[in-house]
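Researcher: Batch entry, complex prediction.
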Amino acid sequence: MSVELNDADESFITGLRDILPAAAFLEASDTFLTEPRGRYKGKGVVVAPDTTEQVAALVKACYDARVGIVPHGGGTGLVGAQVLTEGRIPVILSLSRMTKVREIYPEEGVMIADAGAVLADLQQAARDAGKMFALSLGSEGTARIGGLLSTNAGGLNVLRYGTARAQCLGLEVVTPEGEIWHGLTRLHKDNTGYDLRDIFIGAEGTLGVITGAALKLATIPAVEATALLAVESPAAALSLLSLSRDIVGEGVSGFELMSRVGFEFLMETGLLQASPLQPLPDWQVLLRIGLPAGADVEAVLEHIFTAASERGLVYDGLIATTLAEAERLWTIRETIPEGNRLIGSVASHDISLPLSRIPDFIPEAARRIHDVAPLRINCFGHLGDGNLHYNAFPRAGENRAIYEGIRSQISRIVHDLAVEMGGSFSAEHGVGRLKVGDVERYSDPVRLNMMRRIKAVLDPNGIMNPGAMLR
Amino acid sequence: MSVELNDADESFITGLRDILPAAAFLEASDTFLTEPRGRYKGKGVVVAPDTTEQVAALVKACYDARVGIVPHGGGTGLVGAQVLTEGRIPVILSLSRMTKVREIYPEEGVMIADAGAVLADLQQAARDAGKMFALSLGSEGTARIGGLLSTNAGGLNVLRYGTARAQCLGLEVVTPEGEIWHGLTRLHKDNTGYDLRDIFIGAEGTLGVITGAALKLATIPAVEATALLAVESPAAALSLLSLSRDIVGEGVSGFELMSRVGFEFLMETGLLQASPLQPLPDWQVLLRIGLPAGADVEAVLEHIFTAASERGLVYDGLIATTLAEAERLWTIRETIPEGNRLIGSVASHDISLPLSRIPDFIPEAARRIHDVAPLRINCFGHLGDGNLHYNAFPRAGENRAIYEGIRSQISRIVHDLAVEMGGSFSAEHGVGRLKVGDVERYSDPVRLNMMRRIKAVLDPNGIMNPGAMLR
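Model: Structure tokens for the complex:
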């Protein structure tokens, strides 16, 4: 059933020059051909339209000529969805020239933006309007909203505000046949048919090209406070989460678990001088509370700290008393991936679990890995979302290259155990090209069959991001 | 391309008796053949399996024999999705014998239930576990969760907690070919493929049968307070909403607009003795705030009241000082539909609008209706969601029958204007059979084409709820 694709060759590109402005043709620089982990090197001809109509014309041309398209946002994805390494030469459709905030309605809590708008710019536009765009993650200075939606990105604010999916009211999409779906609704409720928005969100560019998005804006919490707390164990961290929520409900806006190893890496690589808590705890939680005006947020945090100490959940900690101190603590958390990068992981994982299975998962996964190799485990992440980054590293002084041969075995161990426990092998990073095999291995077969049918019927020529998500 | 269906005739039913227990065959009573507004009278053979495997066997038999299936939950839908009136005799697949809460995880905030569980029972199960299941609406004593999800029901708590979609983590679904998708995940994050969950939510039983759901449980707000406030206009009500959110953010958990006419109907029909506010205001807002422990919720409400009065947004009001008083106020709001029913509407509408268009919509729609007939308008609803129930009634002493000839003209006026202003002709009630023509008239054609393709590829024999949502 699958259709043969053709190369985006000279004659095809010459044809494109008739329908697109010269400025749309960009050099195929490393920006477009590499990805952050350096695992893949892509290929393709870079075309960057500056209107939705140009995107539609480009996609229509690719559809007619059966040329593959790799949509490209900020290029920050971690699973290779943005780089095609094999097969026919594709068009790399960059949204980098579509970056406008089109409209903003602060009183409605809605902002409409081009898919190429950078997340940090959207956050700033919201702040300028007295509101907050709640999506936030490490790559926010580079990642673009179309890619973030296509990945259904998570990040630091999911616990309170949800993933990218929950921040989106409507989409403008160019279909794989080059038509435009005008779905940029500002409505909070609209039950008039199948929910196509959510099919495109998280589809990683395999069903069409997101060109615009209507985004939800939230109220800026009037007062916020952050605490760094030492907990005995992941189980104690979960009890602390439950206790915090009983006290302040949705007011818990951040709840990150960090392991001793993560801090050791930061100090080993010079990214952190000293642990704020001494001696360095095995497990720490970074907790943020945001409350409405009038609330005494530090008193609430003290109350949580006291109640948690009385229950034996927390044995040390500090409350940031200034904004600068809070930012310093959050910077530590956000620097952990850079520490990991400098150490060099053998295998990285982005798993999720039912919350109550996490305390069993962490030691059991370590046990199974240590049966294979004496790796160091840095387990950290968005505990409140059940999402752990569970990464394996060589011992101090070793180079990760010596473990190259067991990389896939380690990942298999971690993913098998996560799925055994009702979890997922990809919580927020997506599938891309890295985890296509995992989709085939772990997906419910009935679900996989429905996915394949939807792909086939919405992208009949199979031109959209070939090889990503589904083979 | 469309396949001819067959009747669920004697010989087909005889075959079913071999694969299903005798108890599954129920009498086709009015419960299954009528709907709340009395506009449709359905037909069919009622079969009520009591396990997911039985549902799968039943659907497989229908698929093989090309017999239509109308899934039936609590039968409370308002657009006729639950009754098939023409064409071949279908199986009415009742979920009324699958009503269990399967599992509950209070510390994870997750509950897994059969699709036939009644909403009020789920709310109670959550409360018994110290949590809250936030979906709440007038029909909660009868409506079943499978139907509520298939409709993506809204109700009174959408502003804070979202629609049914936002309360659901995962689904178990029997596909139109009789296979089971085991998608009952407890995960809050899982980016491993297309979001099929959200395609089934709101599909009104046209893509498969929801047999089970994993539902989110929320923290019960520690303290709540309700105020009834007289506002000058819908515009003032919107400013009051914005002000309230600036002060307490997500703490605003209910924000209902009610018109003078709604209260007049309640008094005319004897459902209400007297207006709590005297003289009866043209427009009133029912506002509920829910806050974490320790917050002085009445003081916060007083603060909102004072600030709104200073800005000229509110000119009268009362704060409920007891739980009983608050419940009395909410009962008035929840009784408005019964008042409408007793008066007898000429045409009812469930529209949504971008929030800032509402103040223009209300008088303009009335003007256009009054060009046609001197009807009374009762406009009320979930203002915070942009969702209005905009219903037209005969003048006092008149019977609605005299306006039967202009019913569709009135609906056309209301829906045309809503869509002109960027709104929707169905905010929370769905499409069913009542609004299939509206879907064809108002939908973006590219979207409609994608919907039809998805329907065709997931339900190749066209047996699922024939004639609902799409013709």
